[in-house]
């Protein structure tokens, strides 16, 4: 089961012995409940997820987002799945932080293609203040185009989160990646608590959270369910929950253990995420190009949205 101490720090001003991190009006999920959902007959699970979705969202609406890598590779973290880690030879070339004008041009093209949200990603452990100033400029400029803004920059201090909020940032992406039990097998340079602390800083700054994980890295079904329990049991679950399929990257440790999830297992996971986090937008993000149109349709029925990647995106 998931240790409660992993979850408490996202809620501030409350004693850790109090149940501050319970989802949806005091609802606290346990893995046994997630396992019960996972074991339901497929038609029943899909019916239930559809009902939850229809009670909270327009059933036919598709929210579209576009992501741009504004600074690629050279990250000092040792995430065992990532092509941008400086620890591995993956064949992906490092780039400097893009100019604001180039980022805005990419955002304008994304808007013309139908995107309503634009996410800017930089391969950092945490941003330097001088780089954050440039990212804040990008956020404000993209916001002026009428797009929702999102960034993923690594770990943040409270001050940095506040600066991003003042620049007009809508969403901050910072994934938990996997379950607490499996986490140490894929990364050693950043703890899960580090990630939880950043989520706390972002939430306190008034920024919405985009937080999910990756499947297909050799984890068990139980790990996938524990990841959903971790997310759902936050006091306020993430407004956006990306489910990423790991893309094969030569040169990283995960490649020795990776196993693509069974297609129906993926749909089940999407449906369970929808039920456990009824107010969150569930997104199928990285790796979606590797799945068939038929599986995409089932995931949409299950009920997820889709991200699009353009520009200097990697790992898609």
Structure notes:
36% of the residues lie in helices and 14% in strands. The chain starts with a helix and ends in a 7-residue tail after the last strand. It is globular and about 50 Å long. The protein is built from eleven helices and nine strands. Strand 1, helix 4 (100-112) and strand 2 form a beta-alpha-beta unit. It has 316 residues and is an alpha/beta fold. It has helices at 5-8, 31-38, 42-54, 100-112, 129-143, 158-166, 180-183, 192-204, 221-232, 263-276, 293-302, and strands spanning 64-71, 117-122, 148-152, 171-173, 208-210, 213-215, 240-245, 281-284, 305-309. Strands 5-4-3-2-1-9-8-7-6 form a nine-stranded parallel β-sheet. The model is unreliable at 1-26 and 306-316 (pLDDT under 50). The chain has a single domain, classed as Alpha-Beta Barrel (TIM Barrel), CATH 3.20.20.
SSE arrangement:
Elements lengths: L4 H4 L22 H8 L3 H13 L9 E8 L28 H13 L4 E6 L6 H15 L4 E5 L5 H9 L4 E3 L6 H4 L8 H13 L3 E3 L2 E3 L5 H12 L7 E6 L17 H14 L4 E4 L8 H10 L2 E5 L7
Parallel strand pairs: 1-2, 1-9, 2-3, 3-4, 4-5, 6-7, 7-8, 8-9
Helix pairs in contact: 3-10, 4-5, 6-8, 9-10, 10-11
Function: Catalyzes the conversion of dethiobiotin (DTB) to biotin by the insertion of a sulfur atom into dethiobiotin via a radical-based mechanism.
Subunit structure: Homodimer.
InterPro entries: Aldolase_TIM, BATS_dom, Biotin_synth/BioAB, Biotin_synthase, Elp3/MiaA/NifB-like_rSAM, rSAM, rSAM_sf
């Amino acid at each position: 089961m998931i240790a409660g101490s992993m979850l408490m720090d996202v809620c501030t001003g409350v004693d850790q012995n109090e149940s501050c991190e319970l989802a949806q009006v005091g609802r606290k999920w346990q893995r046994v409940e997630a396992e019960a959902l996972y074991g339901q007959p497929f038609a029943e699970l899909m019916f239930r997820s559809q009902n939850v979705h229809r009670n909270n969202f327009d059933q036919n609406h598709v929210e579209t987002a576009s992501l741009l890598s504004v600074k690629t590779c050279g990250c000092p973290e040792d995430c065992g799945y990532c092509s941008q880690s400086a620890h591995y030879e993956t064949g992906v070339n490092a780039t400097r932080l893009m100019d604001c004008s180039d980022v805005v041009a990419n955002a304008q093209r994304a808007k013309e293609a139908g995107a309503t949200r634009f996410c800017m990603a930089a391969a950092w452990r945490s941003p330097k203040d001088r780089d954050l100033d440039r990212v804040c400029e990008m956020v404000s400029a993209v916001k002026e185009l009428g797009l929702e803004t999102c960034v993923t920059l690594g770990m943040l201090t409270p001050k940095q989160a506040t600066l991003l909020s003042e620049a007009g940032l809508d969403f901050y992406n910072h994934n938990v990646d996997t379950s607490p039990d499996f986490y140490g097998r894929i990364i050693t340079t950043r703890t899960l608590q580090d990630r939880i602390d950043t989520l706390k800083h972002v939430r306190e700054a008034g920024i919405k959270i985009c937080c999910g994980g990756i499947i297909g890295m050799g984890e068990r079904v139980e790990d996938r369910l524990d990841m959903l329990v971790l997310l759902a049991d936050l006091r306020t679950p993430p407004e956006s929950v990306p489910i990423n399929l790991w893309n094969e990257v030569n040169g990283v440790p995960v490649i020795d253990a990776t196993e693509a999830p069974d297609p129906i297992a993926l749909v089940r996971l999407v449906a369970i995420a929808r039920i456990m986090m009824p107010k969150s937008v569930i997104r199928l993000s990285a790796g979606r190009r590797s799945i068939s149109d038929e599986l995409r349709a089932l995931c949409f029925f299950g009920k997820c949205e889709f991200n699009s990647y353009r520009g200097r995106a990697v790992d898609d």
